[in-house]
Amino acid sequence: DADVTQTPRNRITKTGKRIMLECSQTKGHDRMYWYRQDPGLGLQLIYYSFDVKDINKGEISDGYSVSRQAQAKFSLSLESAIPNQTALYFCATSDGGVETQYFGPGTRLLVL
Amino acid sequence: QKEVEQNSGPLSVPEGAIASLNCTYSDRGSQSFFWYRQYSGKSPELIMFIYSNGDKEDGRFTAQLNKASQYVSLLIRDSQPSDSATYLCAVNQDSGGSNYKLTFGKGTLLTVNP
Known about the structure:
Number of strands of chain B: 11
Shape of chain A: globular
Number of strands of chain A: 11
Strand content of chain B: over 45%
Number of helices of chain B: 0
Largest sheet of chain B: 6 strands, mixed
Structural class of chain B: mainly beta
Structural class of chain A: mainly beta
Helix content of chain A: under 10%
Radius of gyration of chain B: 14 Å
Oligomer: heterodimer
Radius of gyration of chain A: 13 Å
Distance between the termini of chain A: 33 Å
Largest interface: A-B, 23 and 22 residues
Shape of chain B: globular
């Protein structure tokens, strides 16, 4: 089984809808991250969490919110989706040591 | 604003050749450096990381770091068509307790031609 899983893998939604992307990990890592990736661009950090009680904004947090339900679960919500949030979203985890990050398979989101 | 710059490519090499991928970074406080490989539509996967000046070898891959020049590179020897992917350089600043974040370059697309 994959160490980092994301659901759904693909999602089509309409402008104004609220959607949630979920991430689960079995690696036992404390740190979890949400990134978005647009074609031809690098990975941009949306939010990150060091533990259940510690959540921090990244570079592009506007329009997004997160919830760390447990050490193993970190969810990303788009409160009111807009077309420029169409992107590939990745969850990642790390053990906080060498900061090597391990990525989930990604969620491809299309906002119409 | 910390920046990580990569040539977007595409870089095209023949099978069996050495592919050389380059990355520069702006923050002199950067301490650790990572190379990720990303196949189209897939997630990034770690190839290797390097902390110290000099070379680090792992199989066909060699990472090179020059902190004075703020330059890190990845060499792929005996390139194979399966190496065709986008290679992402990532940089982390460990000092001051801020070792939470990797800054990624936009990636270099490598194509290995049979």
